[in-house]
């Protein structure tokens, strides 16, 4: 019996990945730095993204990343505008049915907190954890294992909602079923099923 649902954040609850990508490139343009790659790395964590942007030069990468954190605070992500249209309705229905909910994200903790606060979903979320809180990023299962523990659930009592291959693998590695919200160009073949809209997840409860 399903007693909880654990959500990835970026690409699932909020369509934030394209904004992050554009924001990083705009920051680097202002810093007059040409990134080594402009490929949009969906589902990647911050260390992976910045290694792709600034490979091989640790000092330069750290300096640019520190500046980017300040830039991001001055230009916050408009999470309310990027909120998935079906997210609030789904979370409300899950709470109405008495299910536990959590967010297990690879993003930095500050971003997860800001998303929850700015979209007004805090009362619908029982627990959240970021990649920054873990010793390893997805596809390592730690983020899901810790979310399950916090909710007091076994892996077969909850399912995950993801979009990226690394996130799907993380949930599978934690022993969970995982449903993927369709993302163009993403390899979602390992997911239990792929849905086009969040409300379709109610069929799997």
Summary tags:
205 residues; 6-stranded parallel β-sheet; 6 strands
Describe the overall structure.
The chain has 205 residues and is of the alpha/beta class. Helix content is 40%, strand content 12%. It has eight helices and six strands, in the order E-H-H-H-H-H-E-H-E-H-E-H-E-E. The protein has helices spanning 17-30, 46-53, 58-74, 79-82, 87-96, 109-119, 142-151, 165-173; strands at 4-7, 100-104, 127-129, 158-162, 177-181, 193-195. It has a six-stranded parallel beta sheet with strand order 3-2-1-4-5-6, sandwiched between helices. Helix 6 (109-119) links the parallel strand 2 (100-104) and strand 3. The longest helix is centred in the first third of the chain and has 17 residues, at 58-74. The protein starts with a strand and ends in a 10-residue tail after the last strand. The relative contact order is 0.18.
**Main pleated-sheet profile:** 6 strands, parallel
**How would you sum up the global shape?**
globular
Low-confidence runs (pLDDT<50, min 5 residues)?
Answer: none
Structural class: alpha/beta
Strand content: 5-15%
SSE succession: EHHHHHEHEHEHEE
Average pLDDT reading: 95
Q: Tell me the helix content.
A: 40-55%
Q: How many strand elements?
A: 6
The helix count comes to 8
Distance between the termini: 8 Å
Describe the strand arrangement of the main beta sheet, using strand numbers. 3-2-1-4-5-6
């Amino acid at each position: 019996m399903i007693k909880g649902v654990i959500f990835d954040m970026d690409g699932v609850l909020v369509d934030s990945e394209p904004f992050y990508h554009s924001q990083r490139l705009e920051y680097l343009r202002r810093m007059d730095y040409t990134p080594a790659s402009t490929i949009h790395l969906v589902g990647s964590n911050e260390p992976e993204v910045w290694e792709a942007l600034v490979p091989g030069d640790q000092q330069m990468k750290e300096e640019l990343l520190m500046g980017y954190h300040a830039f991001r605070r001055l230009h916050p992500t408009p999470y309310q505008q990027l909120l998935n249209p079906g997210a609030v309705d789904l979370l409300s229905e899950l709470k109405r049915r008495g299910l536990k909910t959590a967010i297990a994200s690879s993003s930095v903790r500050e971003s997860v907190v800001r998303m929850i606060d700015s979209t007004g979903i805090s009362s619908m979320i029982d627990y959240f954890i970021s990649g920054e809180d873990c010793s390893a990023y997805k596809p390592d299962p730690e983020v899901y294992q810790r979310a399950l523990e916090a909710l007091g659930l076994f892996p077969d009592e909850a399912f995950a909602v993801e979009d990226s291959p690394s996130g799907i693998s993380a949930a599978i590695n934690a022993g969970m079923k995982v449903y993927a919200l369709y993302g163009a160009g993403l390899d979602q073949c390992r997911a239990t099923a792929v849905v086009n809209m969040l409300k379709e997840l109610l069929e799997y409860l």
